[in-house]
């Protein structure tokens, strides 16, 4: 069976959906839509949202529904118990991360922004929430320092580079998607435990980091 996963490369929810295929070594067709393609997702699930999984002409939205569905094919891999401290850490860093991330994603050489119109669509919609991107990009030093401090607090929570709590769990899906977005921000300093985790999860999930295009 060929499964198709419709995604935007920059989208952390799409990263979650992609990860489970890599973690389970299951093949899939990776299809990146232009960010201003409204008709495509609407024709599949009735609203403009990605990721979407297409399986035997049926369409499934919602990243964690996709993760659960794919994990249930054969032997599940996400068998570990989540640690609430990981969700707390993600929540505590979420707004700072996405304030830094969105303007950088908007400049990045990603396929969903292959046309000027697609990039402009993203900028216009996201700036409604964040304010002008150019203002955010002028100086990120305070936010970067705060994230660097938070990463020092994440390090002791990582029990194993191969799985944050020792056994793969949904925490790995949420945490790696988060640090994947962070990899687009230049100047972030990763404590050794966090660096080992980023690299191991990138390898295991097949989702590459943005380090080489960080802004
Ligand atoms: N709850 C959804 C949220 C997905 C979501 O918000 N996706 C964003 C991209 S990161 C989206 O498609 N937003 C509409 C848009 O970009 O126009 C999930 O977990 O899959």
TrEMBL record:
Residue span(s) of domain GST N-terminal: 5-73
Record-annotated Glutaredoxin 2 C-terminal domain positions: 85-214
PROSITE patterns: GLUTAREDOXIN_1
InterPro entries: GLR_AS, Glutaredoxin2_C, Glutathione-S-Trfase_C_sf, Glutathione_S-Trfase_N, Grx2, Thioredoxin-like_sf
Parts of the chain that traverse the membrane: none
Name of this protein: Glutaredoxin 2
